[in-house]
Amino acid sequence: FHSHARHTMSNGIPARVGVTRKSQATNVLLVHSELGKVKPRVFAKAPSADFAFGVCKARDPEGAKDVTMKWVEHKPNPDSIPGPDFKAMNKLGAVNEVVTASEAAAFRSEHHITLRGGDHGKVDKTPVLPSDVNPDHVYGRSSAAPTIEETRYTGDAVDIKTIVQGGFINEWITMNEKRAGQMLAKNEWREPKTTKAAAGHASTILSKNAAETNKALPFKMKKFENVPSRALAGVK
Length: 236
Hints:
33% of the residues lie in helices and 3% in strands. The N terminus is likely disordered.
C-alpha cells in the first residue's frame, strides 16, 4: 500500500509523491478534470485529430448561402412527351359520328392527338392595355379642362392654393356661424302636444281622485241620525 499526496512545486506543476503507474492515467477516480476544460478521456486512447465518430459524410460544395441567394428558373425537359389532348380527340370523334364509349376509346387509339408543347402551345391570356400599344395614352380625364356638366354641378375649378390654405374649412366655419341661431332654435325644448286619448285618461284619473277625497258617510237609519254615539261620548 502506498499513500499518495498532491503537492505543488514552485513553477505551479502539481508534484506527486509515491509510485506512478500507467493504469492511473485510465482510472476515472484518479484523473481530475482541469478547470475550463472537458473531462479527459480515460477509457481509451485518444484518436488522431482528423478522426470522426460515426459516418463521415462528404461536405456539399453548395451551401445554404448559394441556395438562398441564387434563383434558378425552371427549365422544362425537352425530352418529355406531352399528354393526350382529349378535347381535340372528342371533338374529332363527334365530327366522325362516334357516340358510344367503346367507339370513342377505339377512335382515340387510332387517332391519337397530343397536347402542343413549347411556347407555341401556350396561350397568352394577358390583356392588352392601350398604353402597351400607345406610350402616350393617358387614362382618365384631365381635370384642367372640366366639361360643362361638371361645371354645372361642382362649379368652377378650384386652385391648389385654396386647398392648401384651408379655404373650404374657413368657408364651412363662416356658414355655420351665420346659421348658429337657427340650429339652436331647432334644439330648444318644446312641450309635447296632448292627444285626445291622453286627455281622456287624465280626466278619468282626476275624477277617481276627487271621489276618494269626498268620503261617503256611514249608513244610518233615519231614526238614529240624531242620536249621538255612546262610544265617542267621552272623547273630546
